[in-house]
């Protein structure tokens, strides 16, 4: 590595944190260490911190040890803890990335706790030593007693924590200045109070049971955290150590209280906890809070529970467009407004949470039926309907909502959210801007779809697909002119699967690109074998190419290499594309078509008439064939019952194709009368069950070898049809 490369290497996070830490705490405490000892000590602590937040799961409790070691090293100045906590909260995400924010905040909180506990223990140990010294001094001479009392009085008055002395009846006899500052009472006012006057409504019964045991002499001391009220009414949180003072005969004589104000630490911990469980942008509950609340619903219910739970899982429609076009600042303000509107819909104690991005969820505990969830979903859609005044214009935001409501004993938290995710996907697929209720049947279908999607890459790699061919027949003489390649999946467990089950998932996952390459290679190889046997009488092969394949930059060169490798003449290959793929505004697909056409490959438009083609645009495209969708010929199947509308539509489309000098192929030809009408209307070719189903390559060869016209409809096994 060169010196320049070394300078560009990222800094070690431990060294960076240790350096920043040393800069922050320098001068805040008296530390009896040399400079090299200080650097080594802080680097060791920085290593503990970085390892803790990087762990999976994070180990925030490591902060306790770090806090104690700071106190042990005499980092006890008033500003040391504050600067350390702020440094960790800011520096760790900057060094390790935003994913460590919750872990960094949690570790900062435990560090503060460990620091305070160590500082408190050290102080309390010192005070305990003072108390014992005072009691021991009573056994010495009067002069020694006076000297000891003087020392005690000095420490009593100068102690940083509050100290109070009371009798066994609970009357307060004396308090130090720290205690008066803590409560806002004067020493005289304290002497008019009893321990019972310091109760708090939140005190647990166990607190006073411990106190009664101490008064009876059963225990010598106890420690706990307890809330108190200042004279002003403001609440404080104190760490209380209450000890019993016995006389020389062991009889309880006094009670000694030492109190440390830990209100700031509590507020810091509460703030860190709030940040760990709330989304910083919208201030809604975050994913962690929602997950914890949902898990609690299931963990506290028994097998005989009749309780029900529901969620509305929603995703904003078109949010990415707004974010990309108007900027993230506008997108953030939109999310904040959406969060506010969602909060106004939660009128029955529902939990509204942001799951991330533009996904939100509303948890309904004790739902008592799906009607409540549906009403909530409708309220949400109504609340989001009014335009949002943002970026100097009124923006409309919609949402799709998946509604799931189930009995707690019949599901789990993960299954409930999986069902909500699938239902949300269904709502989007049905047109967006709507809600959909969970349908177990649809859930199973989507689960099967997702399972197939996950298995597709491996299936393509293991060559689990094969190709069948359906003849393309001349309607003039019913002889084979070409074949369409139709792919099938030989699933190892489910058997042969139709393309309708896997083409959609293949396009969504991107597996369609590699699958398309395989099908194209199978088809060209078989077409070359037919060409070797039959020469110019061999059928051409037509292969479907997905829009995503067409966008691949290397498609033309791949096809050229394949034709050269197999030796198939380019005019024996035809590629089929949908109208949508042909009429895209993107330049790459059209450039690919021009390249294929220039090579001599024929181009066909599949399912013509079902899209939204611009007909004037169609004449400019490099197209040779249009294949009429089978739905247009359905009204022509019966000999005596002919639909004149269908006839007119087909006639118009045929005339259009011929006007553009295109070959017109009719799909879905199933009866002889239908074939006759299509021929009379001018269709050039036909494809369908009247002529043949999808067949293996060897059957196509026998069919061409026989040379007989096709036309008698075969028996249809199980209702199979073209493309199925």
UniProtKB/TrEMBL annotation:
Domain of life (superkingdom): Bacteria
Coiled coil: none
Domain annotation EAL: ranges: 449-708
Segments traversing the membrane: none
Residue span(s) of domain PAS: 148-218
Domain GGDEF stretches: 307-440
InterPro entries (UniProt xref): Biofilm_reg_signaling, EAL_dom, EAL_sf, GGDEF_dom, Nucleotide_cyclase, PAC, PAS, PAS-assoc_C
Domain PAC intervals: 222-274
CDD domains: EAL, GGDEF, PAS
Protein name from the UniProt record: Bifunctional diguanylate cyclase/phosphodiesterase
Native source organism of the sequence: Actinomycetospora rhizophila
């Amino acid at each position: 590595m060169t010196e320049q490369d070394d300078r560009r290497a990222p800094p070690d996070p431990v060294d960076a944190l240790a350096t920043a830490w040393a800069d922050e705490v320098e001068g805040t405490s008296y530390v009896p260490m040399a400079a090299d000892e200080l650097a080594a000590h802080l680097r060791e602590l920085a290593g503990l911190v970085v390892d803790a937040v990087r762990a999976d799961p994070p180990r925030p409790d490591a902060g306790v040890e770090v806090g104690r070691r700071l106190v042990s090293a005499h980092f006890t100045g008033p500003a040391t803890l504050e600067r350390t906590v702020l440094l960790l909260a800011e520096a760790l995400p900057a060094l390790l990335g935003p994913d460590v924010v919750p872990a960094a905040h949690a570790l900062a909180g435990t560090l503060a706790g460990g620091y305070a506990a160590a500082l408190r223990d050290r102080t309390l140990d010192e005070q305990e030593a003072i108390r014992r010294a005072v009691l021991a001094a009573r056994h010495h001479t009067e002069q020694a007693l006076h000297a000891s009392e003087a020392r005690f009085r000095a420490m009593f008055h100068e102690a940083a924590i509050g100290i109070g002395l009371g009798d066994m009846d609970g009357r307060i006899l004396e308090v130090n200045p720290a205690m008066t500052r803590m409560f806002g009472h004067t020493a005289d006012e304290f002497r008019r109070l009893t321990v019972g006057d310091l109760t708090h409504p939140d005190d647990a019964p166990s607190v006073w049971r411990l106190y009664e045991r101490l008064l009876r002499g059963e225990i010598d001391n106890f420690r706990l955290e307890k809330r108190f009220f200042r004279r002003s009414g403001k609440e404080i949180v104190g760490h209380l150590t209450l000890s019993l003072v016995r006389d020389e005969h062991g009889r309880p004589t006094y009670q000694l209280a030492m109190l440390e104000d830990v209100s700031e630490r509590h507020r810091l911990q509460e703030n860190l906890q709030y940040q760990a469980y709330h989304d910083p942008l919208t201030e809604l509950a975050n994913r962690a809070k929602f997950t914890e609340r949902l898990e609690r619903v299931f963990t506290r219910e028994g097998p005989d529970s009749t309780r029900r739970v529901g969620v509305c899982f929603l995703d904003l429609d078109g949010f990415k467009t707004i974010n990309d076009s108007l900027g993230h600042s506008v997108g953030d303000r939109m999310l904040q407004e959406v969060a506010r509107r969602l909060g106004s819909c939660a009128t029955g104690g529902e939990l509204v949470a942001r799951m991330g991005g533009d996904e939100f969820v509303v948890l309904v505990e004790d739902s008592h039926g799906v009607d409540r969830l549906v009403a909530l979903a409708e309220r949400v859609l109504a609340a989001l309907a009014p335009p949002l005044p943002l970026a100097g214009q009124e923006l409309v935001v919609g949402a799709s909502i998946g509604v799931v409501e189930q009995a707690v004993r019949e599901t789990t938290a993960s299954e409930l959210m999986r069902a909500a995710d699938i239902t949300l996907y269904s709502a989007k697929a049905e047109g967006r801007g709507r809600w959909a209720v969970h349908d177990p049947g649809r859930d199973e279908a989507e689960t099967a779809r997702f399972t197939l999607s996950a298995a597709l890459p491996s299936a393509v790699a293991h060559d689990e697909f094969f190709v069948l061919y359906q003849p393309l027949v001349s309607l003039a003489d019913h002889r084979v002119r070409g074949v369409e390649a139709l792919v099938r999946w030989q699933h190892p467990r489910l058997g042969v699967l139709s393309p309708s089950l896997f083409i959609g998932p293949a396009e969504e996952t991107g597996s369609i690109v590699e699958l398309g390459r395989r099908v194209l290679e199978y088809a060209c190889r078989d077409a070359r074998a037919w060409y070797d046997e039959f020469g110019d009488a061999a059928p051409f092969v037509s292969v479907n190419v997905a829009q995503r394949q067409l966008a691949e930059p290397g498609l033309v060169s791949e096809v050229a290499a394949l034709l050269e490798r197999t030796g198939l003449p380019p005019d024996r290959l035809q590629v089929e594309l949908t109208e949508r793929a042909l009429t895209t505004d993107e330049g790459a697909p059209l450039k690919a078509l021009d390249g294929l056409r220039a090579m001599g490959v024929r181009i066909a438009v599949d399912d013509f008439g079902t899209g939204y083609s611009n007909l004037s645009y169609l004449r400019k495209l490099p197209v040779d064939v249009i294949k009429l969708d089978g739905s247009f010929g359905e009204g022509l199947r019966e000999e005596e019952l002919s639909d004149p509308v269908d006839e007119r539509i087909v006639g118009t489309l045929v005339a259009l194709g011929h006007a553009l000098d295109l070959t017109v192929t009719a799909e879905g030809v199933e009866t002889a009368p239908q074939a006759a009408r299509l021929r009379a209307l001018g269709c050039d070719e036909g494809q369908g069950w009247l002529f043949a189903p999808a067949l293996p390559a060897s059957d196509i060869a026998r069919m061409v070898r026989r040379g007989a016209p096709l036309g008698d409809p075969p028996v249809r096994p199980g209702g199979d049809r073209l493309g199925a």
